[in-house]
Every structure is written in structure tokens, then in C-alpha cells.
Amino acid sequence: MKSESADRFEGSRDHPRERGGGYPWPDEVTELLDHLAVELAIEYVRLMEQAAENERATPDRSAVERSER
Amino acid sequence: MPIMVDQQCAEWTLSEAARLLEEPQHRLIYLCEKGVVQPDLQDAEGRGSSRRFSARNLLEFGVALRLRELGIPASVIGAVLYVLRGFERAIGKQLSGFKLPGNLQVAGAPELKVIIGDDQRLYFSLASGKGKAKTYGGISIQDLVVSGDDSDQPKNPLRGLGKEAKPGRLLAKVEVSVTGIAKELGLGG
Predict the structure, then answer these.
(1) Which of B16, B91, B107, B109 could form a disulfide with A41 if both were Cys (CB 3.0 to 4.6 A apart)?
(2) Is residue B49 part of a domain?
């Protein structure tokens, strides 16, 4: 069963012309490559969201210093 | 040293791309003719037409040339670039306007690497900040190689490729940072 995240990234398959420029990989290999691209995208977005969250959670140092003074 | 490029320049001719990448034109032509890199803006279609490349194409050339230097067959490089295109498209569905190579260079962006392990498998890794890199993939190189693939096989093919990895251990034979190449090129999306 596909995860909810995988569903969000659904439909990312390449146009046949973009299949590595005519390398006739078997369909199952192309599927693995497609799956890998989606897996990477999910993790990349997760890491970006995490970085943005960390950024928000980190107090502005200068503001902290000002309030201490 | 990063080669900083005018971000407004959205397309490059073959000679401009070759100059930027500091590579002879014939190497870029080879990658196009093998179908490894497909010009985004205009392909050569007979006399008088010339190829025109996007910033993403330049990143693709950068990755492809680095992998060629390490003795990786053209069809395997084609698979790497195929994954990168799918990756860009999939992220674009979530983060509108996401483009390679520009978005790989933004602050806080995870580092994306291509790895070929000594188990003869293709992996990608992602690492953010000081976090440990996570590895994805594991597609057999053998499944990606197409016969008659490499008429201009590099002089120094990858040594030792072919050894089985010990279970649970991935030793990188080849490791290329896509993010690093994007930064070296200094191109926008």
C-alpha cells in the first residue's frame, strides 16, 4: 500500500522521451528509478520543512541579547 | 572556485556551455548524442540548427562529466539524470517553483549525492546540516548498463567495481555531490 506522502508526489513519471535518452531499460528498472526519484523527493521536502521549523524555533539571538540587557 | 554566472542568462549554446564547464565541445556532443543529456531548449535537428541548453542541462553535464571521469558507463549516467529529473518534477508538485540547480543552493537545503557502492549498486544520499546522511536506492548497475554503451570508455575505468559488498555495509566506490556541482556552477534555476 502506498503511503500518503507517496500519493502527494504521484504522477512524477517522465515523458518517454526523457527516459534517459532512449536507454531501453526494462519496465521494472524504470519503475525502480521512478520510485527512487519519489522517495528522494519525499525525504528532501521533509528535510526542508524540518530546516524551516528549526529556523523558526531558534530564537533570534540579537533579540534575546536585547531583552537580557 | 565557483564559476559565477549571470542568473538572467537562461540559455546557453554548445560553445557557451563548453566554456562554462571548461570542457571540449566534443565531450558535450557525445553526451547529447548518447541521449544522456537532452537539450531542454533546442536539440540539433539537421544542418543549421544548434543545441540550446538550460541551467538544469548544465548541472546535468556537470554531473555526467564527473561520473564519466570516474569510469561510469553512459547508460548508468543516463539513469542518474533520469532520477534527478523525476526528483525535480516530484518536488515541484509540493514546492511550487522548485528548480534544479537553483534550489539545491538555497540555505538549509539538504546535500544530494550520487553514490555507486562497491556492491555495484546505484544509490543517492541526502544529508541535512550535521545530520547523518540517509541512503536511498540500491539499483543494480548491471541492470542499467546497455550493451554497446561505451564506445569511448574512459582510459581509467573504475577499479574494483564488481566486488560484493559485505552484508550491511555500503562502501562508496564513487561519490559525487550534485549539490556541490550546483554550487560550483553557481547557476540559478
Answers:
(1) B91
(2) yes
Number of structural domains, chain B?
Answer: 1
Q: What is the ipTM of this complex?
A: 0.82
Q: What is the pLDDT of residues A15-43, one digit of tens each?
A: 444 444 556 788 899 999 999 999 999 99
- How many whole angstroms separate alpha carbon B52 and alpha carbon B11? 6
Query: pLDDT exceeding 70 applies to what percent of chain B?
Result: 77
B50, part of any domain: yes
Phi-psi region of B103 (alpha: psi -120 to 50; beta: other; left: phi over 0): alpha
B-chain CB neighbours of A40 within 8 Å are 83, 87, 90, 112, 124, 126, 136
Distance, CA of B186 to CA of A46 (rounded, Å): 25
Is the pLDDT assigned to residue A1 strictly greater than 50?
Answer: no
- Note the pTM of the prediction, 2 decimals: 0.80
Q: In this structure, what CATH number is given to the domain that contains residue B79? A: 1.10.1660.10
A47 in contact with B, Cβ within 8 Å: yes
B156 within domain boundaries: no
